[in-house]
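Figure 3 (text version): structure tokens given as input.
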């Protein structure tokens, strides 16, 4: 079993009942259920490194993951450590995109406003990159 700093894996089920993450899961569930499960697809080429001029897709080991509607009407991009990344907004449907950060720890949203969808856009999550600074970019 691998060990991740800041994550206790030996709580047992009784300890998990009082763990901080137990209440945070409801926020993530509400977000995931806000869009239909049917038609949801992985968007592996949608997200790239922020500083990459050639827009190379992220490696699986970098763990920034994206999913969205097959019709391009929405997307979620998850960064587990708050690292910066770029997104190809042109691949989404519609003329513009409404964007916000979703904090899975609190369920709060921070609006980024409405963006033109004709280009690749760089995103920098709030806070300093590191363990426990996970964020979800929501694009609709």
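Below: residues designed for each position.
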């Amino acid at each position: 079993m691998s060990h991740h700093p800041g994550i206790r894996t030996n709580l047992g089920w009784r300890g998990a009942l009082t763990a901080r993450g137990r209440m945070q899961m409801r926020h993530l569930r509400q977000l995931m259920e806000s869009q239909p499960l049917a038609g949801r697809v992985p968007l592996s080429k949608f997200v790239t490194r922020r500083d990459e001029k050639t827009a190379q897709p992220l490696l699986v080991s970098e763990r920034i993951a994206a999913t969205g509607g097959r019709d391009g009407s929405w997307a979620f991009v998850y960064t587990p450590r708050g690292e910066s990344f770029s997104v190809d907004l042109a691949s989404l449907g519609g003329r513009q995109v409404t964007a916000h950060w979703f904090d899975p720890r609190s369920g709060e949203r921070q609006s980024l406003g409405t963006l033109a969808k004709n280009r690749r856009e760089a995103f920098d999550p709030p806070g300093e990159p590191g363990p426990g600074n996970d964020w979800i970019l929501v694009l609709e």
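The mean pLDDT is 81.
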